[in-house]
Design a protein that fits this description.
CATH topology of the largest domain: Rossmann fold
Bound molecules: glutamic acid
Strand content: 15-25%
Shape: globular
Largest sheet: 8 strands, mixed
CATH architecture of the largest domain: 3-Layer(aba) Sandwich
Order of helices and strands: EHHEHEHEHEEEEEEHEHEHEHEHH
Number of helices: 11
Number of domains: 2
Helix content: 25-40%
Amino acid sequence: MLEQTLPRIALLATGGTIAGTQVQANSAGYKAGALPIGHLVDAVPGLSNLARIQAEQVANIGSQNMSHDVWGALAARIADLSRQEDIKGIVVVHGTDTLEETAYFLSLVTHTDKPLVLVGAMRPATALGAEGPANLYNAVALAVSAQARGRGPLVVMNEDIHYAREVQKIASMGICAFASPNRGRAGVVRGGEPRFYSRNTTRHTLDSEFSLSALQAAHWPRVDIVYAHAGMDGLLIDALAGHAAGIVLAGVGGGNTTDSALSALSRAAAAGVAVVRSSRTGSGPVDRGGEVDDDAMNFVAAGELSPQKARVLLMLALSVGRDPAQWQRCFEQY
Ligand code: GLU
């Protein structure tokens, strides 16, 4: 294809291992977010045959340092780019640690049907067998594909395509670190050829009621996650209740915890804190009224959302309303 007729893709870089460097190619330690985006793009053979790439550095951090400020900047930039006629798709380069949170956040606040693809790598750019270049190639191929339109943010890792709501980092090391445990991966992309297996059926992007502006106007309501364990008491929850607008319980099993932690959560809910029960197990739903009387305690059940994604949705739900029934509806629809 002639260079001028290739689709234009915006590449927004935020850092991560994909841009990481080591002292030696076989060493385990490295620094995430060390290389500028131009270096990464140049390292991918054939990328310039897929698209005209317009690269910007939004941040250059390990994604463990991902912040609400960077999320705001990223979402605002995506909104600008998605209004530009000549931009066919957007790729976000991101560290893997919080990739799923950013993907889910963007699925709720970006209002576009253009392809939006998030990509990272588990191995630093200078490692033997770095998979970043292949992931980036596949991400750009997906971003130029008409098949990616209207699906909300997609995550590409290790030749798999995941929906933002479903994807989870499930391993701390190794390249098979991402999965969609509840509903399965969206598809695969091999050698730049995407193949989708399923549609996503929850609300996102053009169908989302949330916005960055409402979230900013509400000052990013503070939501904390409390991790349940055997022998838990209510100390941490009582301490948080005076500060947090919302608390997400990363509960044992189906969103359970000890009687004393439940009593503390119930006190928090009575004081106006939004309380969401989720599960620390990594998959499966937390439904209303299992072993806990959510109606009596005014709790919300997180459904399939992980604690970290429940936190994102609760922040947004708090930015549009104060009614527990409305919060619960959000957890049923997004
Ligand atoms: N902690 C780093 C990050 O999330 C490394 C993880 C990665 O990118 O693979 O940016």
